[in-house]
Amino acid sequence: MHEHNTKRLLIEVGKKLGEKNLSPGTSGNISVRYKKNIMISASGSALPDLKPEDLFTMDFCCNFNNEKKKPSSAKHLHAKIYEMRPDINAIIHCHAPYVSSFAVAHMPLSKPIISENVFYFGEIPLADYAMPSSDALVKNTAKFFDEHDAVLMANHGIIIGGKDLKDAYYKMQTAETYAQIYLNSMILGQSFDLSPEHIEEIHELRKVFGK
Ligand SMILES: [Zn+2]
Questions:
Q1: Which of 20, 23, 161 lies closest to 92 in space, CA to CA?
Q2: Which end of the chain has the lower number of beta carbons within 10 A, N or C?
Q3: How many angstroms is it from 107 CA to the middle of ligand 1?
Q4: For residues 160 and 83, what is the distance between their CA atoms, to the nearest angstrom?
Q5: DSSP track, 24-59
């Protein structure tokens, strides 16, 4: 895909993340595999309001060639996830309010209450806190991508990988809705887990769809 079109897609998804209140202010970052490199948002850019000049390429060692801007401080985490998972071609990290509420409560999103979430995520584990942009953050978070496509980052937010940008965006929306429903069920005072048999059925379906 031409660079111009790839940037257009990233700008579109950034705008949607803003419309859905998934990425407040200048928090969060977004990237895609682009040819043999990574195209990523610039440090300090607001995802809902990305300009073409806020998006540029870096290699897998995070080397880049831009005098005016730097890639997002989460670049090493994005690069590590792409390196680990050849099937992941797009990554969104954001501080969406409901998933981030679970991240600050140190509660993984693992309660099997909605079949769709069991299907898409299995569960969304919680990575230990580390300073944003630090090597420890990469170490604590990336390891979960061995088996998961989405990881909560304690006292921070969430990071999600998808087979393409649309997939990553829909997963982000799905995770945020899951967190909202989970929280609402706690306010209501009760929720009922799917039975082990029903969960097993969904896991079988995941295998069929190569999840
Ligand atoms: Zn962040």
A1: 161
A2: N
A3: 18
A4: 15
A5: -TT--EEEEEETTEEEEEBTT--GGG--GGGEEEE-
CA of residue 191 to ligand 1 center, whole Å? 30
pLDDT of residue 65: 86
Distance 77 CA to ligand 1 centre (A): 11
Give pLDDT, residue 211: 66
- Please give the distance, rounded to the nearest whole angstrom, from the Cα atom of residue 44 to the centre of ligand 1: 11
Question: Token pair for residue 29?
Answer: 């970052």
| Confidence (pLDDT) at 208 | 85
**DSSP letters of 110-170?**
-----HHHHHHHS-B-EEPP--TTSHHHHHHHHGGGGT-SEEEETTTEEEEEESSHHHHHH
Q: Does 131 score more than 80 pLDDT?
A: yes
pTM for this one? 0.95
Three-state secondary-structure class, residue 64: strand
Residue 57: φ, ψ to 5°: -100, 150
State the Cα–Cα distance between residues 128 and 18, nearest whole angstrom.
Answer: 27
Name the pLDDT band for 66 (thresholds 50, 70, 90).
confident
